[in-house]
């Protein structure tokens, strides 16, 4: 099993910045792709950004030019630097990781894990 814990969410004024963190722990063999998703009230959860183990990145159109995703493999940590925040960015932000873990019998398997989310609120 792998556990993910997000932090960094806060109330911020439009135009401000925040840096979110996601720390993975548990029985980690390796972490492949990680990503940030967000859920705006009344809407479906949507992809914000992804980053592979090779640091290749992908962004939603709404995040391009404003958000930057990065990771520190040695610390099993992913970050999301958010600049020029808009009220439309208000959402719960979730961390996701595709990871290889091991069972109690020693067999490896790949699974997707989610954190509990962190609230970002941008005031106008």
Radius of gyration: 15 Å
Can you tell me the overall shape? elongated
By DSSP (H or I, 4+ residues per run), the number of helices equals 0
The count of DSSP E runs of length 2 or more, i.e. the number of strands, is 11
For the terminal residues, how far apart are their CA atoms? 40 Å
- Given as residue ranges, the uncertain stretches (5+ residues, pLDDT < 50) are none
Mean pLDDT: 97
- Summing up helix and strand content along with how strands pair, one would put the structural category as mainly beta
Instruction: Report the biggest beta sheet as strand number plus sense, adding barrel if it closes.
Output: 7 strands, mixed
Order of helices and strands: EEEEEEEEEEE
Query: Beta-strand level of the residues, as a percent range?
Result: over 45%
Q: Which range best describes the helical content: under 10%, 10-25%, 25-40%, 40-55%, 55-70% or over 70%?
A: under 10%
Topology, element by element:
Elements: E1 2-7, E2 11-13, E3 18-26, E4 28-39, E5 46-51, E6 57-59, E7 67-72, E8 77-82, E9 91-102, E10 108-114, E11 118-123
Parallel strand pairs: 2-11
Antiparallel strand pairs: 1-3, 3-8, 4-5, 4-9, 5-6, 7-8, 9-10, 9-11
Describe this structure in words.
The chain has 124 residues and is mostly beta strands. It has strands at 2-7, 11-13, 18-26, 28-39, 46-51, 57-59, 67-72, 77-82, 91-102, 108-114, 118-123. Strands 2, 4, 5, 6, 9, 10 and 11 form a seven-stranded mixed beta sheet that branches. Strands 1-3-8-7 form a four-stranded antiparallel beta sheet, with no helix packed on it. The N and C termini lie far apart (40 Å).
